[in-house]
TrEMBL record:
Keywords from the UniProt entry: FAD, Flavoprotein, Oxidoreductase
Organism: Acidovorax delafieldii 2AN
Annotated Pfam families: FAD-oxidase_C (PF02913), FAD_binding_4 (PF01565)
Keyword NAD: no
PANTHER family named among the record's database cross-references: D-2-HYDROXYGLUTARATE DEHYDROGENASE, MITOCHONDRIAL
Gene Ontology biological-process annotations: respiratory electron transport chain
Domain of life: Bacteria
Name recorded for this polypeptide: FAD linked oxidase domain protein
Similarity comment text for this entry: Belongs to the FAD-binding oxidoreductase/transferase type 4 family.
Domain FAD-binding PCMH-type: 40-219
GO molecular function, one term: oxidoreductase activity
Co-factor requirement: FAD
Oxidoreductase found in the keyword field: yes
Length: 466
């Protein structure tokens, strides 16, 4: 772009949102130039911070006229470098679009601006006696718009579904600045194409989400949690189906940790202790219900029946909130792995539940055979067919072979008919492998949709589709 054109562009953007909200050069914070792991860093042409959906539309109208690429940015907690701008991009921050617009307790909906942190929206729902059901570790920083753009998952998907299942309606700004407003509050609405689905999970490549109507649920009145050890994966699946059957729709988490995870977390992370003594696959199981006394009895009966079947080697029920938190702290040790194990590759894949156990066995063998100095961990939201894998190579064994580890993991995912992304999206990191999980016809349709909605290819250029 010629210098005078850049000056005109910045002048126009400044007029639209005010000089205080168009930052350039050193004024741009590092966080807006990089991803969560700081693996990709580029200083954009400018960081623009509109304060209203109307200003977002004005920014897009200007950028469209100039053919100027734009990278939408939410809370910057994404794990696939989807919000990292290229050097000539405008980074468009949604952070000032922050606020709850309405809670409708009769319709059980919350209308929110896209830049609102997830935790703020959760707190507002709770204050109204309702539940915004999706929850993830980044809740304090990630934004509702980012959650929608990535179709975030988290720990309660088995009960409430992904973020997609919480979005009843939304408003989005298209690449040319057109505002598409569909703030629907109804669970049923089959009036033509379901346009909100174009924006959910499209990682800022088809439009910028500015507002959303989210579905709320009744607040649970009870929570029961246990940590169990099981001998093998087939028994884990039997236990999962038993829990789903006997807990009548109240099962809210079913987290599985393979022995490699349990060993690493309990021996190398200070302050973490296992609630059980047995070896095997570890399961953190939780139910949330509506009546404390009845729910506790139902939960204990479910565990007793599993013990009688010989499925559990050991089990510990959390007797207090503190104990429940200590169980979850052990499961959430995952956030320590990349720090303690750098360099580290983390994977977020999904497989049919029926083949997930065989997949882990084969992957562990392949990793050990191909990278004799590697260490690995396997864990995941198995009830949602989601597996996370972490791989580290012990120091002193040459350059970290990230590309070869990617090829090994994704090659096996492809053979098992799995997905290279269960919940984090594709962004920059995974686009080279998208064809492992999508057919050529699916990819062609994605390109057709992208071209129809963004013919100048200015929205999050180069992300998702290679
Ligand atoms: C500690 C930690 C725990 C996590 N746990 C989970 C988990 O359990 N489950 C899970 O799914 N993810 C998890 N994540 C990943 C991350 O939090 C989610 O992907 C989150 O939804 C991203 O939201 P964000 O606002 O930070 O988006 P960003 O990182 O800013 O952006 C993510 C993508 O969305 C686009 N985008 C952002 N806002 C908008 C908008 N308003 N309109 C259009 N496009 C937009 C960006 O361009 C980018 O492509 C975790 C991350 C961390 C750091």
């Amino acid at each position: 772009m010629k210098p005078h054109t850049t000056t005109t562009l910045i002048d126009e953007l400044t007029q639209a949102v005010g000089a205080a909200h168009v930052l350039t050069g050193n004024a741009i914070p590092l966080q807006s130039c990089t991803d969560w792991f700081q693996t990709h860093t580029h200083v954009p042409l400018a960081l623009v911070r509109p304060g209203t959906p109307v200003e977002v539309a004005q920014v897009m109208t200007i950028c469209h006229r100039h053919g100027q690429p734009v990278t939408p940015q939410g809370g910057l907690t994404g794990l696939v470098a989807g919000a990292v701008p290229a050097e000539n991009d405008i980074a468009l921050s949604l952070a000032r679009l922050n606020g709850i617009e309405e809670i409708d307790t009769a319709a059980c909906t919350l209308t929110v601006l896209a830049g609102t942190p997830l935790q703020t929206a959760q707190d507002a729902a709770r204050a109204a006696g309702l539940l915004l059901a999706v929850d993830l570790g980044a809740r304090g920083s990630c934004q509702v718009g980012g959650n929608i753009a990535t179709n975030a998952g988290g720990n309660r998907v088995i009960r409430y579904g992904m973020f997609r299942d919480q979005v009843l309606g939304l408003e989005a700004v298209l690449a040319d600045g057109t505002v598409v407003c569909g703030l629907n509050k109804m669970l049923k609405n089959n009036a033509g194409y379901d346009l909100r689905q174009l924006f959910i999970g499209s990682e800022g490549t088809l439009g910028i989400v500015t507002r959303a109507v989210l579905r709320l649920h009744p607040q649970p009145q009870s929570c029961n949690t246990a940590w169990c050890t099981l001998p093998d994966y087939d028994t884990v699946v039997r236990f999962l189906r038993h829990a789903q059957r006997t807990l009548s729709g109240t099962l809210s988490a079913f987290e599985v940790m393979w022995p490699d995870f349990h060993e690493l977390a309990t021996t190398r992370i200070p302050g973490l202790r296992s609630p059980v003594n047995a070896h095997g696959l570890q399961v953190l199981i939780e139910m949330e219900g509506g009546e404390a006394g009845r729910d506790m009895a139902m939960f204990s009966n479910m565990l007793e029946a599993a013990l009688e079947q010989g499925w559990l080697r050991d089990a510990a029920i959390a007797q207090s909130l503190k104990e429940r938190e200590s169980f979850w702290r052990l499961r959430d040790a995952v956030s320590e792995f990349p720090l303690m194990w750098a360099p580290y590759c983390g994977y977020d894949v999904s497989l049919p539940i029926s083949s997930l156990g065989r997949f882990v066995d084969e992957l562990q063998r392949a990793l050990r055979d191909t990278f004799p100095h590697c260490e690995h961990v396997h864990f995941g939201h198995v009830g949602d067919s989601n597996l996370h894998v972490g791989v580290h190579i012990r120091p002193g064994h040459g350059v970290f072979p990230e590309d070869r580890i990617d090829a090994c993991v994704y090659g096996i995912v492809r053979r098992y008919g799995g997905s290279i992304s269960a919940e984090h999206g594709i962004g920059e990191h995974k686009k080279a492998y998208l064809s492992h999980s999508r057919t050529p016809q699916e990819l062609a349709l994605m390109r057709t949709i992208k071209h129809a909605m963004d013919p100048k290819n200015i929205l999050n250029r180069g992300k998702v589709l290679a």
